[in-house]
Amino acid sequence: MTAPVIAPVAVTAYQCVSAAGDDVEALHAALVANRPCLQPPRLFELPFDTVVGEVVSPLPAIRAELRAYDCRNARLALKALNQGGFRAEAERAVARYGAGRVGLVLGTSTSGIYDSELAYMHLLRDGAMPADFSFMHIQTAQASAEFLHRELGLEGPCYGISTACSSSAKALGAAQRLIAADVCDAVLAAGVDSLCRLTLRGFHSLQLVSAEACRPLDAERRGINIGEGAALLLLERATPDNASKPRLLAVGESSDAHHMSAPHPQGAGAAAAMAQALRLAGRRVEDVDYVNLHATASALNDRSEAKAVASLFPSPPPCSGVKGLLGHTLGAAGAVEAVVSLLALEQGFLPGTCGLQQPDPACPCPVIAAPRLDVAPKLVLSNALGFGGNNASVLLEAA
Amino acid sequence: MDRMSLLGYGVCAPDAALRETLPFAASDIVREAIPATLRRRSSAATQLAFSAAAAACGQAGRSPSSLPAIFASVAGEIQTTDLLCRELARPEGVVSPNAFHNSVQNTAAGYWSIAQQCTQPASALAAGHDTFAMALLEAWCQLACSGGELLLVCYDETWPAPLDPGRGEPAFACALVLAAGDVAGRLAHIGRPERGGAEFPEAWRAMAERMPALAALPLLDLAASGGKARAVPLSAAVSGWQARMNCDD
Fold first, then answer.
1. Which of A91, A222, B46, B111 is the most exposed place for a label (fewest CB within 10 A)?
2. Where does the sequence pass through the membrane (chain A) (predicted)?
């Protein structure tokens, strides 16, 4: 092991609301059962057939003082905050370090645009946006970050990162740097994205949306499914006090410099991001026990990423992708799948690849179809690769 | 790291009236900064960002292909998003594939990395009225953790009227090339962004509240004038983000 470039941080709490259910226990159960959670959209109608990873349980109301932030995205974030004691852990960090030393970085692709779409229908019908519509509080990439920041009374730095599907993986990197640079003692890193017409109809226009449940890495795949979710991770400086908690070691980042909506065909950017994560953490490829693939079930993306793994690892570890279970949660995917990886580390299993029947021979990495409950990984890479050739790879380690 | 070095900066202000009031040089959109293949189909946001970024790299004498980049914008590709939202509000509305992938917040960052053949990380962030302040803080953290140099670009095109009447204009972009620690040839030192009481200049406050990218004006003013060490405000909002800046030593 070489010396790490960046100090690891402890993940002292994490929570997730997704199509698999309202908390990490529900997500864990779905992962172990390899149970698809996709169904036709209920939130709005579409002029084509697909299934989505929708959160169908009720979302909490935003309190009156913060009503300007009220949108589906903020409600998803609030629902995750209220699950399983996460809010109490965040409040403990504020009490311990002081509100000014706790920051918040949130990754999202489309923020509250679902509610903007409704406002535009109002505009077309009545000639004006709804009176209570607030662009800065709902639609901007920082809106739901600022909502959570105010909901928790934080006074540290607060911003949104929006680099398409790598957004919240990069938010984890930014959050780690805030602690490593001694700007903060704790940072809430989040990924939140909600279903909206823009992404569903946009990906459909790119002919990427599958009518049926998606089949990542499968020879017969027919495209992607969109999902939604909110994942929250509380990061704190690593100390002996939190030695029983898993560690975020590093986030590797790179650009393909190739194409706006297609990945580098050989996966050069994805390989660079994974290599960078290992370099920053002072670890070797041989140390990695499992790779949580981005694996969207688009043929170009799957093959590019598999080639990246094959080029980086002389002997690749088991790989899998969970979008056949949850759908692609876009800007939230990096944080959602960091939570999936943390569950793998803490519960001792490897997730399967829901929907995989016939592995694509053009994907040269060892993909596992069914979950493996007999393997306890210690070091996991989780990839998030996005539009604009924007790549991030998150390296997490068991306590 | 106790300070970073400002190696160069660039400013793009297409509004001629604004350019005349600025105490430093600013350009209109620079066609040569945008690759020919992008000129027709790129947004004002992307063109603004490219114009300022190219000028900053030029002044710093740095090749853009080697610099990690932070692109910061309150509203991103908001004109494209507005058009898409109008289409989506109609039952028969059509979403074009190009408009869709050009609507992401990291459109400028993505095209920049492609145009410059830069495989370094490129981020895209937003923080409302604190967008410039948080971008400078993100730059600080990247340099403190990894050293080296980077490009910071803060930009916003004019926002479409229905979204935020009375705000989001005039369009503006600025770019900074920053290095960790002391670097020969620096224009200034900049300290860690922090909370403080530095007052935003009254002359610019109303305009910067309308267009948050203009929160960079006090820092650019000091960089251009070479004034004495002081704390410069990084936000026109009440959040109090500031950084100490020194052009003397």
1. A91
2. none
Mutation target for A interface from B42, B78, B88: give the one with most A CBs within 10 A: B88
* Residues B11/B48, Cβ–Cβ less than 8 Å: no
Please give, rounded to a whole number of angstroms, the shortest distance from the CA of A352 to a CA of chain B: 30
CB contact under 8 A, B104 and A162: yes
Q: Give how far B236 is from chain A: nearest CA, Å.
A: 15
Q: Which residues of A are known to be catalytic?
A: 165, 294, 328
Secondary structure (DSSP) of A279-296: HHHT--GGG--EEE----
Average pLDDT over residues B72-88: 97
| ipTM given for this complex | 0.98
Q: Smallest Cβ distance to A158: which of B127, B141, B145?
A: B127
How many other CB atoms sit within 10 Å of the CB of residue B205?
17
Encoded tokens for A345: 């580390």
**pLDDT exceeds cutoff 70 at B243:** yes
Asked whether residue B155 carries a pLDDT value surpassing 80, the answer given is yes
- In whole angstroms, how large is the CA radius of gyration of chain A? 19
H/E element, B152? strand B149-156
> How far is C-alpha A93 from the chain's CA centre?
23
> Helix or strand or coil: residue B17?
helix
Q: Which residues contact A365 (CB under 8 A, 6 or more apart)?
A: A291, A293, A306, A309, A310, A313, A316, A319
User: Which residues of chain A have a CB within 8 Å of the CB of B160?
Assistant: none
| CA neighbor of A75 nearest in space, from A249, A195, A171 | A195
The pTM (predicted TM-score) of the whole model is 0.98
pLDDT in tens, A347-399: 999 999 999 999 999 999 999 999 999 999 999 999 999 989 999 999 999 99
Q: b vs e for A274-285, b when ≥16 Cβ sit within 10 Å of the residue's Cβ?
A: bbbbbbbbbbeb
Q: How far apart are CA A144 and CA A71, in angstroms?
A: 9
pLDDT tens sequence across A58-86: 999 999 999 999 999 999 999 999 999 99
